[in-house]
Specification:
disulfide bond, oxidoreductase, Four Helix Bundle (Hemerythrin (Met), subunit A), mainly alpha, 0% strand, 194 residues
């Protein structure tokens, strides 16, 4: 009897610890992005050339920096190619690498946002991160979080959503697409949709 109660108590302790760790991680992530939001806050309109939305280059023959849409597509390709393959603590291929010697995934993400060429877009993405903090407890959760974040951006821009194509069911296809450098739009050929 005592043994059964003991294992039940231990199981409950594991569950409580898991919930507490998840809550603390969520609160920590929220704080990171609230702090970033305060640092990036500006009332100035975007004046960077990269914030331009031109569809056609204004003067043929002149080299222009990429516009907002081109930068966005390049970032999403990079992010969706990286997320399924990055090693996180609960990932498929977690190794015993020292977390003290390398930055965390949250460090990487906040740096990515800080250097994003369009301040308006960076501010908007920080808002998304504050509302739904990145899930970095496992590689699978992190990959799916990026899909949800991409859908949140698409919703803000009135663009089509990925929806059910970004579910746990398709994680193997997302990993294969990542190894091939495909975007979420391009990985549809691997899951047989559209």
């Amino acid at each position: 009897m005592w043994l059964a109660q003991s294992s039940t108590a231990e199981g409950l302790g594991v569950v409580v610890n898991g919930l507490l760790n998840g809550f603390l991680q969520h609160m920590s992530a929220s704080g990171v992005f609230e702090s970033l939001k305060a640092r990036l806050k500006s009332d100035e309109q975007c004046v960077e050339v990269s914030c331009d939305d031109y569809e056609v280059k204004p003067t043929p023959g002149i080299v222009y920096p990429p516009n907002r849409a081109e930068i966005g597509r390049a970032y999403w390709r990079y992010i969706h190619s990286r997320a399924p393959l990055v090693e996180l603590p609960g990932g498929r291929s977690s190794t015993a690498s020292s977390s003290k010697s390398r930055p965390t995934e949250m460090d990487w993400l906040t740096s990515l946002i800080e250097v994003y060429p369009c301040r308006h877009c960076a501010d908007g993405f920080v808002d998304i991160c504050c509302e739904m903090p990145p899930e970095v407890s496992s590689n699978d959760k992190y990959t799916l979080w990026w899909c949800e974040a991409h859908d949140a951006v698409n919703s803000e821009l009135s663009k089509p959503m990925f929806g059910s194509r970004c579910s746990a069911k398709y994680l193997p296809a997302m990993r294969e697409a990542a190894r091939k450098g495909l975007t979420l739009d391009e990985y549809d050929s691997l899951i047989g949709s559209k």
